[in-house]
C-alpha cells in the first residue's frame, strides 16, 4: 500500500479518491497543487473539490461512463489550466468509492485553440481580401464597413474603425467605423480634425507605432484630449495600428473595447495590420482610379470644349477618339457613330486616300505633320479649310501605334484672305483700267491739240490767203482758197465724228451675248455695199463661229477691217477674204486682202489713233479706224495684229479668247 | 556774201500736208525768195531724195539742198527719224535742217535739238506771219550765218 501511495503521490497528474458524498479520502501532491495551495498533510480532510470539477465528476458518475473522459478548466494558483477527467468506481480505504484521475491538457488545448484561431483568422482575412478583389470602386466603402464589422466581432471588440490622414497629413477623418453598441459610435466631429489637437497620438502613429492601451489610465498627461474623447465614447481599452503606403502614413485602424483592462495581443495587431494592408491597397487603388477618372474627365472636358477638331486614330487610321467639335464636323451623333471608322467612310475617296497616306507616313516615320493646310468636304458638300497638325501616338515603348490629329477651321480666315485677294485683284484691275483711261485721255488731249489744230490752222491761214487773193482779184486763187477752206472744215467735222466713235468704242457698256459672226459680217457688208460695187470687189469667207461678245462692236470691227481692205487696194480690183482658225484659246479671225500691204516696221503704229501711213493726198481717212478696231478687240480680251508685206496684201488678224459665260462682266 | 548763198540754191521742204505745201509755196512767192523750193511728201521720200534713190535717181531730179525744212508729224517715217538719219550721216549732216511744225511741245523741241537740228520753228497761224517767217529764215540762213561751203 505504501508502495502504491508513493507511486501515486509521485504521479505528475492529479489523483483524487472520493467517497460517494464527495469527501476526499485521498489526494496526491499534484492534485493538491491544482485545488489548493495548502500542504497535503494538514488539510487533507478539509479539501474541497472545486465546484466545476465536482459537477463534471457527478456528470461522469451519473452517466456511469466508466473510463470515458470529461473536461474541466480550473483556475489554479499557477493560472487557468485545462484537465481531462476520468472517474472509476474503485472501493478503497476510508470509504472511498471513486478514483478520479485528472490529466493536464492545458498545452494541448492552447495549441488546439491557436490552431482554430489561425484557421478562422486565415478564413477571415481571405474573405476580407476577396471581398475587395471582386468589388467595384463604388462598393469599396461598403466592403470596408463590412470588413470592420467582421474583424470587430472576430476580435471580440466593441468597435472597429478606420482613420485617414489628409494628403498633407495635417488633418484626419474617421472614414469608416463599426460599433457593437457597448461603445458609442464614433462621433461626427471626428471628421476633418486638426491633427495638432492630438499630438501625442498623431506623433506615435506618424512614427508608425502601434498604440495599445489596456486602460485609459495608461495615457500620459499630454494626451488629455485623447482621453476625454475616448472616455466620452465609453472606451475602456483599445489598439490602433498605423497604415502606411510606400512608407508614408496614410491613416490608422483600430479596435476598442468597453472592457477596461483588456489585454491586446499580437493576434489583434496582426489582424489589424493584415486587414489594414488590404484596406490600404484598396484605398490607394480607389484614389488612383479617382485621380485618373478626374484627369480623364478634365482632359475630356477640355478637348470637348475646344473649338478645334481633335481626334486620335489607330495604326490603321481608324478613329478611336473624337472631340465634340470633330463629331459635329463629321455629323456624328455620338462617338460610337465614328469609332472604328476611317476617312474612307466619311470623305470622298481621293481626299480619304490622301489623308490615309499622310497618316501612314507619320506612323511609319514617327515624324509629325505640322500646320498643313488642307480642305475637307462636309456632308453638305461644303468645302472647309483646315490647318492640321498630326503627331504620332506612341505606346510605352515609343513605338507609334496611331496618331493624334488637331485641326483648326480656318475657312473664315481663308475666305477673308481670298476676298482680300479678289479685292486686291479687282483693285489692281481697276488701277490698270484707270491707267489705261488716263493714257487714253492723254492721247486724246494730244490728238485734240494737234490733229484738231491742223484743219483750224488751215481755216485761219487760207482765210488770210483768201482776203489777199480777193484784193488781187485772182479768181483762180480765190477758188483754190475756198476749196482748201471747205476741205479743212470737212476734215474737222470728220475728225470730231471719228473721235466720238473712238471714245464710244471704248466707253460704251458692252452687251455680252452669243453672237453669230456670220451675221455681223452680213451687216458690215450691207453698210459697205456701195463701195464694194464701186471697187468691183470680190468677197469670200469661211464659215465663221458663234462667240460671246458685243454684237454692235464686232460688226463695227468687221466693217472697219473690210473697209480698209477696200480702201488700200493696189492696181487690181480688191479681193477680200475672211478667215477663221480655232486655236488653243479660242478663235483667231482674219480679213485678208490683195492690197498695197504694209512694211513690217509700221505694223504696230498703224493701230495708234491718227497714225496715217499715207499722205492725205493718196488715201482718205483720219487714221482712226484701226485704233477703233484695236479697242474693240482688246475689250473682248483679244489682240489684233497684221501680217503683211508691201505689195503683197495684208492679213489683219485678231483673237477672241474663249470665255466662260459666267465670267462675262 | 555768204559762200553758199548761191542764187539758185535749193531748199527742200519735207511736208505731207498738201495744204501746208501750198501755204509754204505761197509764202515763198510772197517773200520773193529766189531759192528753188523742192517738195517731198513724207520722210521716206525725203531720204529717197537725199540718197538719190527710186524716182530721184538722176542727179538733176534731186539737187543737194542748202537747207531742209522738215515737218515732224508725218505718216510712215516721221520728221524725227529723218532728222536722225541726216545727222548720223557724215555726208548729209552739214546741211542745215530747220524743223517747221505745228507742234510747240517742249518734248519735241528738246528731242529735235538733241538730234542736232539747227533751228526749230513753229508754223505761224496767220498768212502774214508765215510770209515774214520765211523771209527771216532766208535772211538768216543765206545772208547772216557762215556755213561750210560745198568744198567736197
Task: Please describe what this structure looks like.
With 665 residues, chain A is of the alpha+beta class. Chain A folds into four domains: 2-104, Beta-Lactamase; 115-290, GAF domain (Beta-Lactamase, 2-Layer Sandwich); 306-409, Beta-Lactamase (2-Layer Sandwich), CATH 3.30.450; 508-663, Histidine kinase-like ATPase, C-terminal domain (Heat Shock Protein 90, 2-Layer Sandwich), CATH 3.30.565. Chain A contains 18 helices and 23 strands. Chain A has a six-stranded antiparallel β-sheet with strand order 8-7-6-11-10-9, with helices on both faces. A five-stranded antiparallel β-sheet of chain A has the order 2-1-5-4-3, sandwiched between helices. In chain A, helix 5 (106-133) runs antiparallel to helix 6 (140-154), helix 6 (140-154) packs antiparallel against helix 9 (266-305) and helix 14 (453-472) packs antiparallel against helix 15. The model of chain A is unreliable at 37-43 and 661-665 (pLDDT under 50). Chain B is an alpha/beta fold and 152 residues long. Chain B has one domain (10-144): Rossmann fold (3-Layer(aba) Sandwich), CATH 3.40.50. Chain B contains five helices and five strands; from the N terminus they run βαβαβαβαβα. Chain B has helices at residues 18-30, 43-50, 79-88, 106-114, 127-144; strands at 10-14, 36-40, 67-70, 97-101, 119-122. Chain B has a five-stranded parallel β-sheet with strand order 2-1-3-4-5, with helices on both faces. In chain B, helix 1 links the parallel strand 1 (10-14) and strand 2 (36-40). In chain B, helix 2 (43-50) packs parallel to helix 3. Chain B starts with 9 loop residues before the first strand and ends in an 8-residue tail after the last helix. Chain A binds chain B through residues 450, 453-454, 457-458, 460-462, 464-465, 468, 480, 484, 487-488, 599, 602, 611-617, 623, and chain B through 16-19, 22-23, 26, 41-42, 73-76, 102-103, 123, 125-128, 130.
Amino acid at each position: 500500500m505504501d508502495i502504491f501511495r508513493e507511486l501515486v503521490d509521485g504521479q505528475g497528474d492529479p489523483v483524487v479518491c472520493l467517497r460517494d458524498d464527495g469527501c476526499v479520502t485521498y489526494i496526491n501532491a499534484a492534485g493538491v497543487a491544482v485545488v489548493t495551495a495548502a500542504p497535503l498533510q494538514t488539510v487533507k480532510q478539509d479539501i474541497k473539490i472545486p465546484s466545476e470539477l465536482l459537477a463534471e465528476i457527478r456528470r461522469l458518475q451519473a452517466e456511469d461512463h466508466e473510463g470515458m473522459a470529461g473536461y474541466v478548466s480550473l483556475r489554479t494558483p499557477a493560472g487557468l489550466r485545462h484537465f481531462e477527467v476520468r472517474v472509476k468506481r474503485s472501493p478503497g480505504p476510508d470509504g472511498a468509492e471513486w478514483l478520479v484521475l485528472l490529466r493536464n491538457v492545458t498545452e494541448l488545448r492552447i495549441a488546439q485553440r491557436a490552431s482554430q484561431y489561425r484557421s478562422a483568422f486565415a478564413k477571415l482575412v481571405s474573405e476580407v481580401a476577396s471581398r475587395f478583389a471582386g468589388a467595384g470602386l463604388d462598393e469599396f466603402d461598403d466592403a470596408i464597413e463590412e470588413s470592420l464589422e467582421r474583424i470587430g466581432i472576430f476580435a471580440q471588440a466593441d468597435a472597429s474603425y478606420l482613420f485617414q490622414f489628409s494628403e498633407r497629413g495635417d488633418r484626419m477623418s474617421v472614414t469608416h467605423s463599426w460599433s457593437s453598441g457597448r461603445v458609442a459610435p464614433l462621433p461626427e466631429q471626428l471628421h476633418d480634425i486638426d491633427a495638432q489637437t492630438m499630438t501625442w497620438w498623431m506623433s506615435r502613429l506618424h512614427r508608425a507605432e502601434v498604440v495599445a492601451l489596456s486602460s485609459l489610465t495608461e495615457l500620459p498627461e499630454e494626451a488629455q484630449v485623447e482621453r476625454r474623447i475616448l472616455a466620452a465614447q465609453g472606451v475602456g481599452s483599445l489598439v490602433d495600428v498605423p497604415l502606411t503606403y510606400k512608407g508614408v502614413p496614410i491613416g490608422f485602424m483600430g479596435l476598442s473595447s468597453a472592457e477596461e483592462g483588456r489585454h491586446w495581443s499580437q493576434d489583434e495587431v496582426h489582424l489589424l495590420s493584415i486587414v489594414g494592408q488590404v484596406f490600404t491597397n484598396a484605398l490607394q487603388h480607389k484614389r488612383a482610379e479617382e485621380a485618373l477618372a478626374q484627369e480623364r474627365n478634365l482632359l475630356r472636358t477640355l478637348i470637348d470644349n475646344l473649338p478645334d477638331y481633335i481626334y486620335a486614330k489607330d495604326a490603321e487610321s481608324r478613329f478611336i477618339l473624337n472631340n465634340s467639335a470633330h463629331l459635329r464636323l463629321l455629323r456624328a451623333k455620338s462617338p460610337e457613330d465614328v469609332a472604328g471608322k476611317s476617312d474612307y467612310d466619311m470623305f470622298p475617296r481621293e481626299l480619304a486616300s490622301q489623308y490615309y497616306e499622310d497618316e501612314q507616313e507619320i506612323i511609319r516615320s514617327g515624324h509629325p505633320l505640322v500646320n498643313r493646310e488642307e480642305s475637307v468636304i462636309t456632308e453638305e458638300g461644303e468645302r472647309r479649310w483646315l490647318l492640321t497638325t498630326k503627331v504620332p501616338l506612341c505606346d510605352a515603348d515609343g513605338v507609334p501605334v496611331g496618331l493624334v490629329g488637331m485641326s483648326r477651321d480656318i475657312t473664315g480666315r481663308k475666305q477673308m484672305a481670298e476676298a482680300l485677294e479678289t479685292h486686291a485683284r479687282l483693285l489692281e484691275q481697276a488701277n490698270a483700267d484707270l491707267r489705261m483711261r488716263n493714257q487714253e485721255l492723254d492721247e486724246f488731249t494730244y490728238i485734240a491739240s494737234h490733229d484738231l489744230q491742223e484743219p483750224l490752222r488751215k481755216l485761219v491761214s487760207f482765210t488770210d490767203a483768201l482776203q489777199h487773193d480777193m484784193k488781187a482779184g485772182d479768181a483762180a486763187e480765190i477758188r483754190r482758197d475756198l476749196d482748201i477752206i471747205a476741205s479743212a472744215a470737212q476734215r474737222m467735222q470728220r475728225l470730231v465724228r471719228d473721235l466720238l466713235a473712238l471714245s464710244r468704242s471704248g466707253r460704251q457698256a458692252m452687251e455680252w451675248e452669243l453672237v453669230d459672226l456670220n451675221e455681223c459680217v452680213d451687216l458690215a457688208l450691207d453698210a459697205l455695199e456701195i463701195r464694194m460695187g464701186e471697187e468691183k470687189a470680190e468677197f469670200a469667207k469661211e464659215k465663221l463661229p458663234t462667240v460671246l461678245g458685243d454684237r454692235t462692236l464686232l460688226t463695227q470691227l468687221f466693217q472697219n477691217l473690210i473697209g480698209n481692205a477696200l480702201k488700200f487696194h493696189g492696181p487690181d480690183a480688191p479681193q477680200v477674204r475672211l478667215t477663221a482658225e480655232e486655236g488653243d484659246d479660242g478663235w483667231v479671225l482674219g480679213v485678208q486682202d490683195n492690197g498695197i500691204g504694209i512694211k513690217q516696221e509700221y505694223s504696230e503704229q498703224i493701230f495708234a489713233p491718227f497714225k496715217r501711213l499715207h499722205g492725205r493726198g493718196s488715201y482718205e481717212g483720219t487714221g482712226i479706224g484701226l485704233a477703233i478696231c484695236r479697242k474693240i478687240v482688246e475689250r473682248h480680251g483679244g489682240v489684233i495684229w497684221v501680217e503683211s508685206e508691201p505689195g503683197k496684201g495684208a492679213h489683219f488678224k485678231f483673237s477672241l479668247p474663249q470665255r466662260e459665260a459666267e465670267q462675262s462682266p | 556774201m555768204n559762200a553758199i548763198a548761191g542764187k539758185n540754191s535749193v531748199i527742200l521742204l519735207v511736208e505731207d500736208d498738201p495744204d501746208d505745201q501750198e501755204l509754204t509755196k505761197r509764202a515763198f512767192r510772197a517773200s520773193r525768195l529766189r531759192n528753188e523750193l523742192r517738195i517731198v511728201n513724207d520722210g521716206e521720200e525725203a531720204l529717197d531724195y537725199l540718197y538719190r534713190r527710186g524716182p530721184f535717181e538722176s542727179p538733176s531730179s534731186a539737187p543737194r539742198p542748202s537747207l531742209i525744212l522738215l515737218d515732224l508729224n508725218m505718216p510712215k517715217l516721221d520728221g524725227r527719224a529723218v532728222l536722225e538719219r541726216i545727222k548720223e550721216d557724215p555726208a548729209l549732216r552739214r546741211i542745215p535742217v530747220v524743223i517747221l511744225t505745228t507742234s510747240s511741245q517742249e518734248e519735241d523741241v528738246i528731242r529735235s535739238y538733241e538730234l542736232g537740228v539747227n533751228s526749230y520753228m513753229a508754223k505761224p497761224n496767220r498768212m502774214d506771219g508765215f510770209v515774214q517767217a520765211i523771209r527771216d529764215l532766208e535772211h538768216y540762213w543765206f545772208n547772216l550765218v557762215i556755213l561750210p561751203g560745198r568744198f567736197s
